[in-house]
Amino acid sequence: MKLALGLEVYNKAVLDLPTLAIETAERCGYHSVWTAEAYGSDALSTLAYLAGKTTTIKLGTAVVQVAARTPASTAMAAMTIDALAGGGRTIIGLGVSGPQIVEGWYGQPWGSPHHWLRDYVSIMRKIFAREEPVTHIGRQLSLPYTDEGSIYEGKALKSILHPVGNIEIWIASGAPLNTALAAEVADGWLPMGYGLDGWDIHGPNLETGFQKRKENAVPRENFQLFTNLSVEITDDIQGAINRRKPQTAMYVGGMGSENNNYHRDSMARRGFPEAAQKIQDCWLSGDKEAAVRSVPDEYIDQSGLIGPVERIRERFTSLVPDGATGLIIRTTDRSTIELMAEITQSEYGLE
Asked: I want to staple 328 with a disulfide (CB 3.0 to 4.6 A). Which of 4, 20, 95, 187 is the partner?
């Protein structure tokens, strides 16, 4: 079992990178550290900084939003970060975000998320391979560009920079089509809302993708599935649950439109459809306090290890879902990072 550290600095007004926590994770043998982005701090700049502050831990994005950059731009950043890190340490997790951010923040059309991801991965693979100048004709993206506004002088190019090591591409998704796509073309999958019954729900979709597995992706037996696990050592279990409810309500209720909200859909798939709908209804009506009150305690408790050390030890194996090859621990507390390394090593062995 692999352990990873998930950073939640992207949603803060002031960037405060928990460098000591990251150093602790690396010392404890964590596989990777992951950044994210919404519409504040970006995911890639932080990794470039960490490339110079760490030596072995892998540097991942969970996720970079595909609407924010062209595939060539993301590939350039990935190769640059990996060169700074010494090679073979960079993982680019891709996600589509939602229409509010895609069209409202980046000024890009929502289009087809599935074809956007498929084209994006294909172009990045070609750039990393450096076998020939990159051309691509896709449903969402094409190189060279020849659509509206083109003066038809684009030239197929090959990256000047050579990759120093292997750069992995993972896909974040929750819906069936893009989950199957992850198994088909990516090196790993970052599931949205992968609960204890996640394999029963998503396994058939992954199998569909595995049957079409691309040759340039890692072998199926090396495919990674990392899921989130929040951990907090505390004697006040209810207080810890309550502190997590506002962010849950904001994502389920407001991070998306009434018709397109992956966080609402994820909660529903995990067995809380009525609560998910009520949270969204309350949030969109302006009653955010009611939305927060509508978040079930059970949903929060199922998503993490909360309580005294003894309770965390007792519940650990019961909260590791089938199919997971890694756990992204969300904490900045160094004693918690050390505890999870100890427990994981004892129960599974730490890779």
From this structure: 4
Whether 41 and 49 have beta carbons less than 8 Å apart is answered as: no
SS3 59: strand
- When pLDDT is cut at 50, 70 and 90, the band that residue 262 belongs to is confident
Cβ-Cβ contacts under 8 Å for 10 (sequence gap 6 or more): 35, 36, 37, 38, 40, 41, 42, 43
Residue-range domains of the chain with CATH: 2-232+308-347 (3.20.20.30), 235-307 (no CATH)
Q: How many residues does the chain have?
A: 351
* pTM of the predicted model as reported, rounded to 2 decimal places: 0.91
- The whole-angstrom separation of Cα 271 and Cα 27 is 38
Whether omega for the bond prior to residue 144 falls within 30 degrees of 0, making it cis, is yes
Tell me the pairing of strands 188-191 and 142-143. unpaired
Separation between Cα atoms, residue 208 and residue 184, nearest integer Å: 8
The end-to-end CA distance of the chain, in Å, is 6
Rounded distance between C-alpha atoms, residue 323 and residue 313, angstroms: 21
Q: Cβ neighbours of residue 58 under 8 Å, at least 6 residues apart?
A: 31, 32, 33, 89, 90, 91
Alpha carbon distances (Å) from 227 to 193, 232, 342: 8, 17, 19
Q: 307 in helix, strand or coil?
A: strand
64, 37 contact by CB (below 8 A) = yes
Mind listing the pLDDT tens digit for each residue in 189-205? 999 888 888 999 999 99
